[in-house]
Amino acid sequence: MTVGDAGDVRSEPADHLAGVPDEFQRLWTPHRMAYIQAGPEPLREECPFCAAPQRSDEDGLIVARGETAYVILNLYPYNSGHLMVCPYRHIATYDQATVEEVAEIGALTQTAMRVLREVSRCDGFNLGMNQGRVAGAGVDAHLHQHVVPRWATDANFFPIIAKTKALPQLLGEVREAVTAAWPA
User: What is the C-alpha to C-alpha distance for residues 155 and 142, in angstroms, rounded to an integer?
Assistant: First the structure.
């Protein structure tokens, strides 16, 4: 829009402005549309951690399966390579896990760290379990441990200013790399 000599406001076509630099940077992430369209809580009628093992590994984003627990990519990752280790049993808290589940969750977590270090060359990890909704669990009815790879350079202004996390890899690419490096 422009303002004329008499102060009247006129509009003009903006198609000639395409590609003209301005102060805004654009982060194009068309793959995120699948998550946006799924809504804030996809699979609300069923537990996503109970449903995933019923699917193929590729469709369920499963990286590895054990006897009592499995490893899955986070559908809404904090960083590329964000994995979760879940028992197959639908239990809510760590103290409900059997000795066998605790041991396998621990062993799978260690393997996940080794594999992520190899394929992503990360500098460190955040490991954690949020027990209950009040503690920040997005899915509070099914126990899961987060394994989040971290890099010295992964913190930038996006999360602070724009509430946006830049993820340099698609989930399918991450799953292929982690699965290929996972020990047999």
Answer: 29
Structural domain spans, the chain:
48-181
Cα(167)–Cα(6) distance, integer angstroms: 49
Other residues' Cβ atoms within 10 Å of the Cβ of residue 35: 14
d(CA 158, CA 41): 23
Q: How many helices (H) and strands (E) does the chain have?
A: 6, 7
Calculated CA dihedral for residues 133, 102, 63, 92, nearest 10 degrees: -20
Assign domain 48-181 one CATH number from 3.30.428.10, 1.10.3720.10, 3.40.1190.20, 3.40.30.10. Answer: 3.30.428.10
**Positions in the chain whose pLDDT score sits under 70:** 1-44, 155-163
* Distance between CA atoms of residues 87 and 160, nearest Å: 33
Q: Which residues belong to the active site? A: 144
Cβ proximity of 71 and 63 under 8 Å: yes
Q: What is the pTM of this model?
A: 0.71
Nearest to 77 by CA among 147, 137, 124, 182: 147
User: Is the Cβ–Cβ distance between 120 and 80 less than 8 Å?
Assistant: yes
Q: What is the pLDDT of residue 114?
A: 98
